[in-house]
Amino acid sequence: MYTYTWYQWLTFFYLYCFFGWIFESTYVSLKQRHFVNRGFLRIPMLPLYGSGAVMMLWVSLPFRSSLILTYISGVIGATALEYVTGYVMEQLFKVRYWDYSNQPFNVHGYICLTSSIAWGFLTIFMTHVIHKPIERAVLAMPLMWNLFFVFFVTVIFIYDSIVCTKEALAFGKSLEAMKKVRAELDNLQVQTALLKMNAEDRIQEAKEEFLDQLEAKRVQAAALTGMNLEDLKEKAGNKLEALKEKPSAGMSAIREKAGSAAGSLRDLSNVSLDELKAKAGGKLDSLKDLTGIHLEALRGKSPEQLAEMLKERESRLSALLKERRPFRKDRIRSNPTAVSPKYAREFEELKKHFEDEGRNANPQ
């Protein structure tokens, strides 16, 4: 049976936090081919490993004489701890620092069968092999040295935990803010595109209508004069020659006819804002039904207002990308497998931002 004092339990906790950090950092660094300071904290400790080790010692207390029962207790205890820790951290910080979604037989991405199997073997290995020399070293430590160690490490651990927790909470809030700004940007871009599309469609319709009316008047003129279109064209050509000989009169006639044509075109192409809004409104309803994007608040905005709003949202998004940069950059690099299912687009945008920043800082 394990009969330890409170400070000895804390000593074991801190030691296993440190050993867990060594194991994880070595494993991930080898995979990434560069050093990775693994974990949630800035100090070289992984609380999950410390908590897991202490939990393994506790749950295996009644089963030390049976390897099978030790294995089963380790599987159940460590798996439950991993699930609860993963769930709570994601709810608080909006980021999943480990993700088993791609593993077979996973539960919500927090735990998976292969991980649980490994926890069972690790429980046996730790309780029967690793813990024995560590136990002897801790029990042989003088009381004052043990208390000093616990006090010193506890102060650093608590301080770093508080700082990193505050930063991680702010990180989660910034992801929420980025998602909101990104949605506003998408809506503004869609609305701008719709206005442009409606304006272009209307101008094209006006041109086509004017050309149709012009052709109808030609046909009507030909019918009234009894001439076919070829005769009309020939006559028009003769008039142009005559106009060349009388430039002053010719120019007056041209101006008069051009003014009439321009007036007709102006009447056809001068689309009122209300008419454009009405047409855009119908297309917005169709777009909302197809995409689920709600754009009612953007109706009635002029192109200039939309451009200003776009510029302001892009500026806000850029500021959010740079907010709390050191912590977010370190945490993303320390946890290369981290994901954020609820804010996947924003999280990936941050990762890409830091990758691009690194490439620009170290050009090939």
Description:
By secondary structure, this protein is an all-alpha fold. It folds into 2 domains: about 5-140, no CATH class; about 190-325, no CATH class. The protein is built from 11 helices and 2 strands, in the order αααββαααααααα. It has helices at about 5-30, 45-60, 65-95, 115-140, 145-225, 230-245, 245-270, 275-290, 305-320, 325-335, 345-360, and strands at about 105, 110. Strands 1-2 form a two-stranded antiparallel ribbon. The model is unreliable at about 260-275 and about 285-295 (pLDDT under 50).
Q: Choose one word for the global shape.
A: elongated
Number of strands: 2
Assembly state: single chain
- Name the structural class: mainly alpha
Q: What's the N-to-C terminus distance?
A: 59 Å
Query: Mean pLDDT, as a whole number?
Result: 76
User: Which sequence of SSEs, written as H and E, runs from N to C?
Assistant: HHHEEHHHHHHHH
The major sheet is characterized as: 2 strands, antiparallel
Number of helices: 11
Order of strands side by side in the largest beta sheet? 1-2
**Tally of separate domains:** 2
Beta-strand fraction estimate: under 5%
List low-pLDDT spans.
Answer: 260-273, 286-296
Percent of residues in helical segments?
Answer: over 70%
Task: Please compute the radius of gyration using only Cα atoms.
Answer: 37 Å
